[in-house]
Write a structure and sequence with these properties.
The complex is a heterodimer. By secondary structure, chain A is of the alpha+beta class. Chain A is built from 14 helices and 9 strands. Chain A has a 6-stranded mixed β-barrel. Chain A is elongated. Chain B is α/β, with parallel strands linked by helices. Chain B is built from 8 helices and 10 strands. Chain B has a 6-stranded mixed sheet with strand order 6-7-8-3-9-10, sandwiched between helices. Classes of the chains: A alpha+beta, B alpha/beta. At the A-B interface, helix 1, helix 10 and helix 14 of A face helix 3 and helix 4 of B.
Amino acid sequence: MNFFSFAWKNLMRRRVRTLLTTSGVTLAVAVAVSLGGFNLGYRRAISGSIEKLGFQIMVMAKGCPYEAATMMLKGGTGLLYLPKDTYDKIKNDPDIASITPVFIGIAEKENGGINDDSSSKSFSILSGIEVPSFLEMKPWLSFKKGAGYENGRWFNSNSTNEVVMGFEAAEYEQRKVGDDFYISVIPHGKVEPETHILKVVGILERTGSQDDGTIFLPLKTVQKIFGRENDLTIIGIKLKEFNGIRMREFEGRWLSIPEVQVVSMEQVKGALVSLVGTAQIMIAAVTIIAVIVAIIGVTNSILMSVYERTGEIGIMKAIGASRHQIFGLICIETLLICFIGGAMGSLLAWAASGTTDYALRHLLNIGIADKMVRITWKLILITISGSIVFGILAGIWPAFRAAALRPVKAIRGE
Amino acid sequence: MNKNLLKQKEIVIKGMDLCRYYKRGSETVKALDNVNIDIYSAESVCILGPSGSGKTTLINILSALDAPTAGQLFINNKPVHGLKESELVDIRRGTIGYVFQQFHLIPTLTVKENIMLPLLFLNRKPDSDQIDKVLEGIGLLDRANHFPSELSGGQMQRVAIGRALITHPRVLIADEPTGNLDRQTGLAIMDLFLATVKKESITLILTTHNLEFSSFCDRVIRLRDGKIAE
């Protein structure tokens, strides 16, 4: 027998109370670990998603910065269009290393989509690109291989019906190379929709970005389908040298064009981080309250236990226990509760991280592809250490009360 | 025991003018009033008196569990009065073993663990041979892994005696050890006490209000209204 086994036996005397107290700690720690995981994950996820865009700067029509940020990541539904001559004006800027024009449009899927339900409409994101410049931005794009995906290739720039599908778009529509794909679009200035039959010429490997859900077509074809020849949604840019000064210089040169905004990757990051920040503050507040409630719960539980065992503590002192030993014994009891609660809370947060990630993704809806909740061993160790520290804090008062009991009075139960 | 023989023995505990007063409202209760007492090594002393005579107060002071309001106390010739609780713990640990009327066993520990408990506080590793010897001595070797709730009153008191003996104390103090037991069991416990203290040369101080049990001890000190009655 040692002090730990003795403390454990004391805790097991009131199993329900110990279980409830430990559950309180478990929940508080689970919330704290999830929040910590979110803190660790979302910045990295935002950075990862933005890096996968391949652009350092985007030029787009003026609008809400959050909308711009979301549009960059989700492929966007804002669909404001740049003035027609913007691309021609900007493309010769001396600081630009590479530039790619993009037209994004939303098309209604016709009944060619296998998952289509005749009673409901569904939509596809069509992205019109110029392949050479687009690949300069995203050199990692490659075609899926294997049965049904052979001979995957990019479309010819002049083709009117060839498409390349992102990984998830193809999975969802169950399309392979050589299959047809039907879309319905109401061109600009018209009332009646026009149906187009497209042929899949390539399916991309998964990238973990918004490209996975996109259907790519030649830029001019998409512009024509939507009746917006020469219109662009965004212009992606990489500078020869990217830093704050260069960015401001570049921005200064082109903000003179009316209705155009120049958005850097860093600005987008900042916009998304501040968007998430509000939710984060709320979760942090809930976590702090949960932790305080848990500490009070542990203190109360141990204090009750000390009051119940006043006589026993007196006996222990009479048979040789010192103040320090009684103090230590009570502290060990609180530590055991907090350690077990901390470990179980971490385990719970880890097990539920997928669900938490899913919930946050839907709650925030900012189109981040990477995992937003990232629970690491370091985080778990820090949280368990934190719960031990809180355990010591919670145990100090009851342990002090127990240690200060005078043997004779304690035995008499005073 | 012959007074001359006693004088040849070493004094283990010496109390001089011991007083213990309590405040009860505006009234001062003299639980112990100028008690002088010498306890010699390896003797068995019974403090006899009716309820409220100050027996428990006296042995609480003699065992350094409580401090006298006035007077001086020496244990092993060392002054104990006025010492801090931490210093009293050291004296209790090394010298005194306790047995209480209510047994006061820890309900979540087995017989064996209850007996081992003082060793935990002394940071001493339990020696299984020693524990078995104690268990055998109190007749509970076959009950080592039972919990207190599975024992009779007499058995629980035996465990309490075992717990008191495990540290090899110089003085065994028992407050009404037979108070919660029937006569037969009480007699058996008295036998165990006396056999043990004789075998181990331990000083025994016990309190009782039972004249029959007091007759087994070497010496009887009668206490009445907080004073020693000659």
